[in-house]
Design goal:
Blueprint (H helix, E strand, L loop, with lengths): L5 E5 L5 E2 L15 E5 L36 H7 L8 E6 L5 H12 L5 E5 L4 H10 L7 E5 L3 H8 L7 E5 L16 H18 L2 E6 L10 H4 L5 E6 L6 E9 L7 E7 L2 E4 L3 H5 L10 E8 L2 E13 L7 E4 L3 H15 L6 E7 L11 H13 L7 E3 L2 E2 L5 E2 L4 H10 L4 E5 L9 E6 L2 E6 L2 H9 L15 H4 L1
Parallel strand pairs: 4-8, 4-9, 5-6, 5-7, 7-8, 13-17, 15-16, 17-20, 20-22
Antiparallel strand pairs: 1-2, 1-3, 9-10, 10-11, 11-12, 13-14, 14-16, 18-19, 21-22
Length: 477
């Protein structure tokens, strides 16, 4: 009997190779290629037998409103677009120990009050799940609990008249299909298991929530395999040293993809944070230099967060750039603009940047707040109290307008802020505008980055308004 052939598959991206190699040419990962048994036979053509003709329809038909199951957890429902859609598959990814199982156990316990729900664990024993539920006060929730890893057994339990309407699979990497020879957790098994679960969900109208492990790069293992198959992809983020957790939607066929939900980790589980801006700014020291408050937008929610910077002399030939919560490449661009356009000598100093609270910022509107924190640290002059800053910086140093300016200012005014440094509006192209008001805040409008530097240089005690003509880098020598 001929020996069955094998193939080598990258466990990060799913690329296949005829022989083993150390580096995947598709995704660049090292030591991620694993040998897997190939299929016994290659799928043949369709032959001469005709298929069943499809019945086409038109786009102008009336679409029925998609029903949703609200979990009762407002932050989770916000991220999913109003609740869970029947016959949908949701993938939840995150670092180990971040709270994925805790969150899903709370969600399925809430949903079990109005629908039949099941929690299937492939990593923990039933007693371990019960201990967690008792600690969070969910022991009385009518949730069906099971520990299994065989997809065949799971589908046999779901395909019954009284089968559950909501199912949690924790996690998809532990599941296996018995007609595949590869080990659980490989790309073939993850793809086969997810495909069988999604097919069952579409057939029965069941909502399936799957937990996905992440790679060292922070992506769900096998991202090209899983993320294209499911309807919604949620990432659970957060720093181990902070109690805050961020649930972010990166794909959602039934809702927005830029919404976030904020939770606080406690000994009783995850609690919703209705006003995250107040918590992110709760421990802010307003008299310290190197800190600035950024008014950002996450989805449709305005959010205020503190940006901290520290500029220190370096003892090494290559200065260090350490960033937490922001893009390292974006910081390098801001430092280059400050040095080239504003004359600040930053090339020989260490730069440390931190977004307080464990939040990750992705929008370019944070450029101006980061620059203010850096200049404040260099000049050792704090930003004036009750001041928010936002704006995008171009390579020539110009400050560009950003979206949702009114929402940002209203959120700042609601939290007691009285000043704002914002990009100059197209209607005001003259000198830096100071004294204008919007949403109850006094605005300082600037059009170039050196005007921000002048706000610190023209004030003896700290961050102030432009009292005279703004000097450029050439005038400073």
């Amino acid at each position: 009997m001929a020996k069955p052939s094998s193939r080598y598959v990258c466990q990060d991206c799913g690329a296949s190779y005829p022989r083993w190699q150390g580096r995947c040419e598709a995704c660049g990962g090292w030591n991620s290629i694993v040998e897997e048994a190939a299929r016994e036979s290659i799928p043949k053509g369709l032959g001469e037998r005709a298929g069943k003709a499809l019945q086409f329809t038109r786009l102008d038909g009336i679409a029925a409103e998609v029903p949703r199951r609200a979990s009762g957890i407002a932050e989770f429902d916000r991220v999913t677009g109003g609740g869970l859609v029947p016959a949908s598959a949701i993938l939840v990814g995150g670092d180990p120990g971040i709270g994925k199982s805790t969150l899903l156990l709370q969600i399925v316990a809430r949903l079990a009050q109005g629908a039949s729900a099941a929690y299937i664990s492939g990593e923990e024993a039933i007693d371990q799940v019960r201990m967690r539920a008792a600690r969070m006060g969910l022991a009385k929730a009518p949730v069906e609990l099971a520990a299994a890893t065989s997809i065949r057994d799971i589908l046999a339990s779901l395909d019954r008249p009284d089968g559950p309407e909501v199912v949690v699979i924790d996690s998809i990497q532990t599941m296996y299909v018995d007609n595949l020879e590869s080990a659980p957790g490989t790309v073939a098994q993850v793809r086969g298991s997810a495909q069988e679960l999604i097919r069952a969900a579409k057939r029965r109208g069941t909502t399936v929530l799957m937990v996905g492990h992440v790679t060292k790069e922070g992506l769900i293992a096998g991202p090209r395999v899983l993320e294209h198959m499911v309807d919604t992809v949620l990432y659970f983020e957060g720093e181990r040293g902070h109690q805050f957790r961020i649930l972010r939607a990166v794909k959602n066929r039934f809702g927005p993809t830029d919404e976030i939900g904020v939770f606080e980790m406690t000994d009783r589980g995850l609690l919703e944070v209705g006003n995250p801006s107040a918590l992110f700014l709760g421990e802010r020291d307003r008299a310290v230099s190197g800190a600035a408050v950024f008014a950002g937008i996450e989805g449709t929610r305005p959010m205020l967060v503190e940006v901290q910077a520290l500029i220190a002399p370096t003892s090494f030939a290559t200065p260090r750039r350490a960033v937490v919560g922001w893009d390292t490449g974006r910081l390098a661009m801001v430092l280059a603009v400050l040095e080239a356009r504003c004359g600040l000598a930053l090339g020989g100093r260490d730069v440390y940047l931190n977004v307080a609270g464990g939040l990750r910022i992705a929008e370019p509107a944070a450029d101006l707040a980061v620059s203010a924190a850096i200049v404040s640290s260099v000049t050792d002059r704090p930003v004036l109290p009750e001041t928010v800053i936002f704006g995008e910086i171009g390579l020539s140093g110009e400050i560009r307008p950003v979206n949702h300016m009114d929402h940002r200012l209203k959120e700042a005014a609601k939290l007691g802020f009285s000043r704002a440094v914002v990009p100059r509006s197209p209607q005001r192209r003259g000198a830096a505008g100071t004294g204008a008001t919007a949403g109850g805040l006094r605005l300082t409008e600037i059009g170039h980055l050196y005007e921000l530097v002048a706000l610190f240089e023209n004030s003896e005690d700290g961050f102030g308004a432009v009292d005279g003509p703004v000097r450029n880098a050439a005038a400073r020598g």
